Amino acid sequence: MTELLTSAQMRTIEQAAIASGKVTGLELMERAGQGVVEAVFEEWPELAQSSHKAVVLCGPGNNGGDGFVIARLLRQRGWAVEVFLYGDPAKLPPDAKVNYERWGAGGGHVHRDWETIYKAEQALRLHMLGASITVDALFGTGLTRPLGTLHNELWHAFDLDTGPIHRLVSVDLPSGLCGDSGRLLGMEKFAVQSEAKGVAPSALAATLTVTFHCRKVGHVLAQGPIMCGKVVTKDIGLSSGPKLPSVVTILPKGCVFDVQAPFSGCIAKGTGHKYTHGHALILSGLSGKTGAARLAARAALRVGAGLVTLGTPHEAVTEVSAQITAIMLTEIDAPEILTRVLSDKRLNALCIGPGFGVERAGEFLPHVLAAKRATVLDADALAALAESETGFADLHENCVLTPHAGEFKRLFPDIAAKLAEPPTKGPAYSKVDATREAAKRAGCTVLFKGPDTVIASPNGRCSINAAVYERAAPWLATAGSGDVLAGLITGLMARGFAPHHAAETAAWLHVEAARSFGPGLIAEDLPEELPKVFRALGA
Ligand SMILES: NC(=O)C1=CN([C@@H]2O[C@H](COP(=O)(O)OP(=O)(O)OC[C@H]3O[C@@H](n4cnc5c(N)ncnc54)[C@H](O)[C@@H]3O)[C@@H](O)[C@H]2O)[C@@H](O)CC1
Ligand SMILES: Nc1ncnc2c1ncn2[C@@H]1O[C@H](COP(=O)(O)OP(=O)(O)O)[C@@H](O)[C@H]1O
Ligand SMILES: [K+]
Fold first, then answer.
1. What number does the ligand 2 atom closest to the CA of 479 have?
2. Where along the chain is AMP bound (predicted)?
3. Domain 264-413+430-537 annotated CATH 3.40.1190.20
4. Segments of 77-119 assigned E as strands
């Protein structure tokens, strides 16, 4: 599991490294600048062939310090570099000041008349510089408040109504983006309007973002991906090892994990007969609505549950049995029958919700929860839960709730309202904060869907399965894909995976199956693609 860090955690790691005496802040800044230059040439090898022009926008903190290093390194390669400083050089933090001075000592000029940048002459000047790259080293992890008028100035200076800045390279984080939440401070309205107009969500929406040590939470949540363009992570010598203490020692609590490919040994079936791998019961809706549960059942079987049974109401038996083969069927017309069926203890995982009907779900829920099995509550079961009088009281730690944003809002209206509030200062309230709060309140694992799927459990464990950048899976936005996800989690829990682990693994496999199938994907394709994904994992 790789961590995704918050800005405060990154600072803690940096300070621990400096305190250990193995590295200085100045060395880290030099490596950061070098990392950006390396990433630029890796991204655009043609720029390494000859000298070009660059514009570097430096801010008042250490992000600006990285900018001065980049300017110096590019100039050493013969580039023409124009540096603009937003802030007072006298107030730069020590390491940034050293690099400001090194830039000056080497004959570099710094445009300090920032307030005139938006005047026509300057705008034209910037525009005519014909820079091959523009570097955004204004703010990184130290952003605490909105960019305010600075944003408008940049928008006009770069004449952005005509298109985004060409090859905008962002240092660490696009300025204006909160590193903990992926939200644009003070600019969400602007971002939504620009998205509708088809223009960039901010003047500083990057083509390439180069970050250090590891990705920050804000790179993958909310507007992070659209703002960063592409994220390259450069090692600056902070990795744990013989020299430095490990992240787990430095940050014992509160890490957010980036869900990685499951180990083949964890997916492989090993020895045992079908009952060793569990028996999942998926509750089906009424006739005409059985497709969702059938999708979930197929996914549960493909993900390796030993047996899968569809609990089907009598009037839908013909419809369901006409469309299943390896999946079994048992008639369940009423909640009491469910309780009887569940006297078979080999049925060890349950799924309720897909196509089930909200009212029926309300009737079945108390029986489902009283059975204390590993249980996925999805779709209509979530709506029923939101309306239930007992609320979350009957949920137990082996439950997994899988809301999309609409369902999340019904279940946790106050938390959703907090998340919807426009962020005005950093760190802003994030989807991670919201999901953690929801899991704590519900007393079980919550998987909050989206391209940035967040999974949290009551003990504070939190992971993100980000279907963004190189793992983008836009074809998952198709009817029924959520039902498949519910089936995957149920199947894995039948196999004995703990709820949080099942949710993480299912979310990863879901995205991987979509990416493996590619364009044209519909929900039915997802379970059928799993064998290919498993083979690639070496399972
Ligand atoms: N943490 C680390 O391990 C490393 C950090 N480095 C760089 O240092 C950056 C963090 O540096 P800092 O902590 O100095 O933070 P920043 O450089 O991101 O910005 C901090 C400064 O901006 C001011 N500020 C914040 N929001 C503002 C706004 N909206 N308008 C005007 N001023 C605003 C703050 O008061 C502060 O003076 C990282 O993003 C990275 O680029 C690198 O040099 C290498 C190592
Ligand atoms: N653009 C996207 N990129 C990646 N995953 C997506 C995207 N849109 C939706 N998904 C995923 O697809 C699934 C959709 O689930 P849901 O909204 O419940 O749909 P349905 O009810 O039709 O099954 C979720 O797992 C969600 O995370
Ligand atoms: K930046």
1. 22
2. 449-453, 482
3. yes
4. 80-85, 110-111
Confidence bin at 240 (pLDDT 50/70/90): low
**375 to 42, 263, 349, 470: CA distances (angstroms):** 47, 24, 6, 32
Cβ of 87 closer than 6 Å to ligand 1, yes or no, is: no
Distance 140 CA to ligand 3 centre (A): 5
Closest residue by Cα to residue 380 from 354, 398, 401, 406: 354
Q: What does the block give as tokens for 127?
A: 């525009």
For 351, half-sphere exposure in the C-beta direction (CA atoms, 13 angstrom radius) is: 40
pLDDT at 246 over 70: no
How large a percentage of the chain has pLDDT more than 70?
95
Number of Cα atoms under 13 Å in the Cβ half of residue 222:
28
3-state secondary structure of 184: strand
CB atoms within 10 A of CB 502: 28
Q: What is the pLDDT of residues 494-515, one digit of tens each?
A: 999 999 999 999 999 999 999 9
Q: Tell the residue nearest (CA) to atom 16 of ligand 2.
A: 482
Distance from Cα 430 to the centre of ligand 3, integer Å? 20
Stretch(es) of the chain classified as CATH 3.40.50.10260: 2-258
| Residue ranges, CATH 3.40.1190.20, the chain | 264-413+430-537
- Tell which residue, 363, 326, 318, has the closest CA to residue 491: 326
In single-letter form, the type of residue at position 464 comes to I
Give the angle subtended at the CA of 256 by the CAs of 20 and 533, to the nearest 5°: 120
**Cα distance between residue 361 and residue 381, in whole Å:** 5
For 2-258, CATH gives: 3.40.50.10260
Q: Extract the annotated binding site for K(+).
A: 63, 136, 175
| Secondary structure of residue 372 in the 3-state scheme | coil
Identify whether the C-beta of residue 326 lies closer than 8 Å to the C-beta of residue 294: no
In three-state form (DSSP H/G/I as H, E/B as E, the rest C), the secondary structure along 472-538 is CCHHHCCCCHHHHHHHHHHHHHHCCCCHHHHHHHHHHHHHHHHHHHCCCCCCCHHHHHHHHHHHHHC
Give the other-Cβ count within 10 Å of 343's Cβ. 8
User: Max Cα separation, the chain?
Assistant: 84
Model pTM score = 0.96
- What is the C-alpha separation between 168 and 158, in angstroms, rounded? 11
Question: Which is the closest atom of ligand 2 to the Cα of 480?
Answer: 23
For ligand 2, atom 25, name the residue with the nearest CA.
482
Cβ proximity of 530 and 509 under 8 Å = yes
CA–CA dist 376, 387 (Å, integer): 18
Q: Give the contacts of 461 (CB within 8 A, at least 6 positions apart).
A: 257, 500
Residue 177 DSSP symbol? B
